[in-house]
């Protein structure tokens, strides 16, 4: 995700390569980041953040406290942005020592500039800070501001959602192979079908329910397939999937 954001900032003309730096303790990770983005990296966080105006935390939530506590008090004049899943603004404020904090839940389609990001702000965030956050994440997709209480649900939906879609795509491909299609053709047709269907919804050609009804003839092939989904309680399954991910996000936030 850090690579996607950095690349989007540079490619979108929001920042020059020389305006961005990154830090990682792993040499291989630093090398890969620079190879992809052209941005220089540091082995230690202190060097990377010393002259920064904005600091983005892009680590696993389980190690965030370990990363931040040695840096406590170094963020007074900086906008601090966290994309670590589940970490509350209250915990971040405790570890960072600042109230100019933004918590963001992005997702991996940012890698292809089709990301979805939702952010929430602490009390010290100013209007200019909000505008900057929207420019940063808007460079790789859509961005919305919501109350922090909604971010666990956002995590369960769009944060984890790409994996659900990948699972559905693979299931469709597997099904197509069972009825005789070659794997390459099955994948290409599935990807185009999913992309096209999503685009129809995005263009507001109808609600998902309206579009489904429009392409379903009574007694036809689509109706036969949808009947299987209904018997399997597909919508209920997806609700439980999103609830499970939302609950896990809340658990991560509690440490």
Short description:
With 255 residues, the protein is α/β, with parallel strands linked by helices. The chain has two domains: 2-151, Rossmann fold (3-Layer(aba) Sandwich), CATH 3.40.50.720; 161-253, ProC C-terminal domain-like fold (Orthogonal Bundle).
Please write out the topology.
Elements: H1 2-11, E1 22-23, H2 27-37, E2 41-42, H3 45-49, E3 54-57, H4 64-68, E4 79-82, H5 89-96, E5 101-105, E6 115-121, H6 127-138, E7 141-145, H7 151-159, H8 161-178, H9 183-202, H10 208-214, H11 221-231, H12 234-253
Helix pairs in contact: 7-12, 8-9
Task: Summarize the structure in words.
Helix 7 packs across helix 12 and helix 8 crosses helix 9. The protein has a five-stranded mixed beta sheet, sandwiched between helices. Strands 1-2 form a two-stranded parallel ribbon. It folds into two domains: 150 residues, 3-Layer(aba) Sandwich (Rossmann fold); 93 residues, ProC C-terminal domain-like (ProC C-terminal domain-like fold, Orthogonal Bundle). It has twelve helices and seven strands. The chain starts with a helix and ends with a helix. Helix content is 53%, strand content 11%. By secondary structure, it is an alpha/beta fold.
